[in-house]
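G.,

No rush on this.
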Amino acid sequence: MEFELWEPFYEAIIEDFGYSRDEDRRAARFLDENLEPFDTERLDAIVRDEMAVVVGDAPSLEPSRVPEDGVVVAADGAAERLSDAGVRVDVMVTDLDGAPTYAAEMSHGDDGTVVMHAHGDNRDALERWLPEFEVSNVVGTTQVDPREFDALHNFGGFTDGDRSAFLADAFGASRIEVVGFDFTAAEGEKREKLRWAQRLLRVLSEERDENIVG
């Protein structure tokens, strides 16, 4: 999703939650200054024309139900849960609040790619964890205008789960199947975030003319 299309959603989200665009920019600037531009042809080679299985970290996730014939794009803690169950993860999408140790380990592997997101609430986590990563295997993302930065992207999406789906769309997945999403399995602010995730996945469904989520 181009930033011009994403920006109205972003503005509604920061108004809804009281987030700071300036803090988002500061976190993004830190991440940008500590990454090199990632060759996105690597992601294109993984995802294009493949079925993308986007895996959320809902408590109800059952790794055995993840299809074996697709590219697995897993949201944060779901990646570690899948790996522990012997399920290969091709791309992990994280803002470092779920499984940062596993994300760092994955970045040092031969095959895994980690998509690391910067926002105003995770600047401390970025400072703490980024030195543990093999940054050549890290794609940096932001929720503000990526044209302000050299090494960051904005593919659209808000939570790790729906950002995983937007990434799959951006790199030409032939089909997107979601597993491990439960939009009611939380309370308070997290539940509101999940409602936004569901809303955005419905937008993506309409854009792709594909029933990604009901």
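When you get to it, here's the other one too:
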Amino acid sequence: MHEIYLAGGCFWGTEHYLKQIEGVVDTETGFANGRTPNPTYEEVYTDQTGYAETVRVRFDERRISLRFLVELFFHAIDPTSLNRQGHDEGTRYRTGVYYTSEADRRVIESVFAEEQKKCDKPLAVELEPLQNFYPASEFHQDYLDQHPDGYCHLPWELFRFAKEASRARV
């Protein structure tokens, strides 16, 4: 299994989107790259901790490549929006890709370069090594599975897109 950490705005929708992708084995919502140990959702919500709502993604590289996973991630975000996705605003909703190996960084950088060519403004997506990650409480795990009518900044058609795109690629 391979791991990558993806911040795509509110982690409820981001997690649900990523779970639809063929080859994603496990997801966990949490908080990445902040300043305080063991933050709570309420603390992160103040935008004073430096954390981004993030999803840890474990995936099977025999079924999906890191490159394709990051490409699909870009379909779910507005890559030029700083600290905002949909109606959600604040530094906790910033977008980012947080890696744990230099080999991953090189792959991700090439995807960023391709995505930048599609945009007329600079990308506002962080690309940084993972400094820390703390899981969110159980309430925030698999939120949209537990609350199918719950809030989500992503359009529902995007979930179908993720499922179909990954199956077509495999």
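The mean pLDDT is 96. The first strand starts at residue 2 and ends at 8.

Enjoy the weekend,
O.
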